[in-house]
What does this fold into?
Amino acid sequence: MLALFVSLSLFTAYEAVRPSPSLPEGRARRGEGELRLDWWIASGICIGFAFLTKGPIAIVLWLPPVFAIAWLSDSHAKPRWWHYGILGSVAGFVAMPWFVLVHHQDPTFLIEFFYKHNVARFAGEFLPKPFWYFVPIMLVAGHPWSFLTIPYARFLFGRNEEDRSSRPPEVGFLLLWSVWCFAFFSMSKCKLPTYLLPAAPASALMIGHYLGEVLRDADNRSRHFFARFWSARSATATTCFAGMSFVMYVMATNSVVTVFTYGWAMMWTSLLGTSLLLLGNRYQAKIAWGTSTGVAFLFAVMVMHQMVPAYSRSQTLFGDTSALIKQLNVNPQSAIATVDHEFSEVPFDLNRRDIPNFDDVHDKGLGEFVTRSGTAILIVDDRIEPEAVLQQLHPQTRLAEVAHRGSARIYQATTSEKDPQIAAKTLASTTKIQR
It folds into this structure.
């Protein structure tokens, strides 16, 4: 959602400042074009929705590219300070009512949201990563187009007349957009791979424009020779090798291998051999890139629609079996608590609102909860040793592990004041539910 609204806000802003086609060329070059207020207001609306989605990052990603294209280009309209005031007012009109209503519900929300989840995140309080973290992310996420990085850089910064005439002003705006997004999140100490999504539309359009230039320039093969042939053939071979390696890894690490996995292995082996034979083929550039795109699509289908979901089902609490749900919900009134991790899927999937979360295993309320309930199901982060859980419980409580899935260990805690043997705090494991 953030990538969608940020992209819409930047596209509409560019429509507002770009030279009007009806403006005489001389006046356009002198920057006498008028800002189109309708597109400018539309951009403010999109910023408001982006602000509702993820907060002030919407403005941070929008302002530098728009300001820079207007400042660097003589042909684009120059927004005045009151234009920015109108845009800010429109964005505020969209976003502010929701923040006001939430503040009335929870007075601590604004500080929690703006400071902890914006300023503190940028400073590295959560998920700190090195400065270069997004470089390999871009190369992997941009596959197979990342094989055009070197020839595209030469095209983008080339000084010869052919390259200059092939670069419209829109490419400059897309470059400002994508580079600023990459630079800002690289400066932030808190990093996740998905943070670069707002740069994806601009990067895709830039590569698409360049690939169009490469494939159209059939008469001058030497100009884009690397991009026309070696980039495409190398990308295809790399994809096939990655596909075969991925399948081999799955087969080596899983005790049960499905017939689909064997089918993928045979397909990738044959495609890899074919791609290696075609590395020296210097003809049919369109077919070469079409093949590379098709192979990359197959790899994405295999990984994202089969391998990753299968792994996810094997690791999440309520994945490929309903046995765990039955175990936890035999009695709709059974006491359940989550410990040291939120495990938000538990109350959601069980459709319960009475499942407490204890942020810290040392919370005294945990022992009181189990004692009061008599028998309770505890879903605990698997980094917590069972002895640490047992120490917080009543001396006459027995803790039995009933399942271990992904990052969660599930225990049944039973308190009985009549059985003296329970006072020894024994830890008994019962039959685990099939993963």
